[in-house]
């Protein structure tokens, strides 16, 4: 199903921009001072009703915003272009699933257990902060304003910034202690970092017995529909499904205006491909594109991003496979056609710990704005993790089958565990050993590429 969305008439935007000349002049005069410039742009956008804090007459709620008429027009235009560029041009299957999601789905996907950020608390007031953000702010502030830093210290702080997403709770806690970082508002001491689940919990139905969550991403709606979508596609791989919709994340301390909010619009694509053949028939369309890439080796050794031809990045193995490369190229085209400056756009590879354990490779499109380099698209080869998890939990096989041209006779070694022997050898651990044996023999032919786009992030870019 393809929706041909009509772009919003540009008059609304023109009306909003009319009379902005004096503001534009004032803003231009501030361009040298990033902070002042950002505040002025933010104020102007609010005054002109691009967006305003939600529930403002009651004091507002951090991380929740309303779009006014010009904001709605921009959003509608961007979404229409996204649908045109990805869904229609690539013949993807679009779906539209509910935001309220039963617990079982998000337990299977791992979100109930693992969708967390590391939080620290002001030990006296109980105010909460994201541990990695405090460490990042500390390092940046020192590097920018402390002239007494030795070259070794500078190197150390730069290294922390490069590997920040890779740090464990213990490592973050140790650095926060070592640098004496205190609560920003009160200067009180901070607790050790601990995980906080970002999902909003609710209950479905009046009994209160059925737990649900507001979805933190739209992708799960696609995975649980895999069987029907595969059938709709004539039982053939590869195919892609897409969804645009609201996502909800109870962010610990949302700052940075529209860049980190508690409810936002996500546009996601899941591309399902044979794991033994990740070539892409249209890769040559994008292989000559050349742009800033920031592989993990360069990040870990303190080098900067360099301009690389996409075809080379794939053939040299920097990017894991053609399908992943194809989507990196398509995202580059999408963002630059939207008007993002190509010199302020880079593709950064995830560091080993940053990447989910099931991912084969992962790249973020980052845009440099007044807050620094900000992730605005995630592109990941997540193997068959989600399909396998939902198959196991639901008992419905989410698999694809390859039909051979000729029938083949295959001899296969099959392990049939002897429960009695296992019981004698492993006693209480028998169940675990049995499960491990089963898992290692399950195979599935699908994997997917996850592509996430977040619209509100595009608003503040300059
Ligand atoms: N709270 C938020 N507000 C606005 N956009 C968001 C928020 N969280 C994530 N995004 C955007 O959604 C995209 C996909 O989310 P993803 O799950 O990859 O984010 P993430 O890696 O968990 O983000 P982070 O580590 O910065 O919290 C990101 O590329 C980002 O642009």
UniProtKB/TrEMBL annotation:
Keywords: Aminoacyl-tRNA synthetase, ATP-binding, Cytoplasm, Ligase, Nucleotide-binding, Protein biosynthesis. Pfam families: tRNA-synt_2b. It is found in: Cytoplasm. GO terms for cellular component: mitochondrion. GO terms for biological process: mitochondrial glycyl-tRNA aminoacylation. It comes from the Eukaryota. This is glycine--tRNA ligase. Belongs to the class-II aminoacyl-tRNA synthetase family. The keyword Manganese does not apply. InterPro entries: aa-tRNA-synt_IIb, aa-tRNA-synth_II, aa-tRNA-synth_II/BPL/LPL, Gly-tRNA_synthase/POLG2, GlyRS-like_core, tRNA-synt_gly. It catalyses: tRNA(Gly) + glycine + ATP = glycyl-tRNA(Gly) + AMP + diphosphate. The keyword Protein biosynthesis applies. GO terms for molecular function: ATP binding; glycine-tRNA ligase activity. Its EC number is 6.1.1.14.
């Amino acid at each position: 199903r393809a929706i041909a969305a009509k772009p919003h008439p540009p008059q609304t935007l023109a009306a909003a921009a009319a009379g902005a000349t004096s503001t534009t002049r004032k803003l231009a005069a501030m361009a040298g001072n990033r902070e002042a410039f950002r505040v002025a742009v933010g104020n102007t956008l609010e005054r002109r009703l691009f967006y305003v804090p939600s529930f403002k007459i009651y004091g507002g709620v951090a991380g929740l915003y309303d779009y006014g008429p010009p904001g709605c027009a921009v959003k509608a235009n961007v979404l229409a272009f996204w649908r045109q560029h990805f869904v229609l041009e690539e013949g993807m299957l679009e779906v539209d699933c509910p935001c309220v999601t039963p617990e079982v789905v998000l337990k299977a996907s791992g979100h109930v257990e693992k969708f967390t950020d590391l939080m620290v608390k002001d030990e006296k007031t109980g105010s909460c902060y994201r541990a990695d953000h405090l460490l990042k702010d500390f390092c940046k502030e020192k590097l920018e304003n402390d002239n007494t830093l030795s070259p070794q210290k500078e190197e150390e702080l730069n290294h922390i910034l490069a590997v920040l997403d890779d740090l464990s709770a213990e490592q973050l806690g140790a650095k926060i202690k070592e640098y004496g970082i205190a609560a920003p508002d009160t200067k009180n001491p901070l607790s050790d970092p601990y995980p906080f689940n970002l999902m909003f919990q609710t209950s479905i139905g009046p009994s209160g017995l059925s737990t649900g969550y507001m979805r933190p991403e739209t992708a799960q709606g696609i995975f649980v529909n895999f069987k029907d979508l595969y059938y709709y596609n004539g039982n053939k791989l590869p195919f892609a499904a897409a969804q645009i919709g609201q996502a909800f994340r109870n962010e610990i301390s949302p700052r940075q205006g529209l860049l980190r909010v508690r409810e936002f619009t996500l546009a996601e694509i899941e591309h399902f491909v044979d794991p033994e053949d990740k070539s892409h028939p249209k890769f040559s369309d994008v292989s000559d594109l050349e742009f800033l890439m920031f592989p993990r080796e360069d990040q870990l050794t303190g080098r900067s991003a360099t301009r690389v031809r996409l075809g080379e990045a794939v053939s040299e193995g920097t990017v894991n496979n053609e399908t992943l490369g194809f989507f990196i190229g398509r995202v580059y085209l999408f963002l630059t056609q939207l008007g993002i400056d190509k010199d302020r756009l880079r593709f950064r590879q995830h560091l080993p710990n940053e990447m989910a354990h099931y991912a084969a490779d992962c790249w973020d499109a980052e845009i440099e704005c007044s807050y620094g380099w900000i992730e605005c698209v995630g592109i990941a080869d997540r193997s068959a993790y989600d399909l396998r998890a939902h198959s196991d939990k639901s008992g419905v096989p989410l698999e694809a089958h390859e039909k051979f041209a000729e029938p083949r006779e295959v001899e296969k070694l099959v392990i049939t565990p002897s429960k009695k022997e296992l019981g004698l050898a492993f006693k209480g651990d028998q169940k675990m050993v049995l499960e491990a044996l089963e898992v290692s023999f399950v195979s599935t032919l699908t994997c997917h590429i996850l592509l996430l786009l977040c619209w509100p992030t595009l608003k503040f870019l300059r």
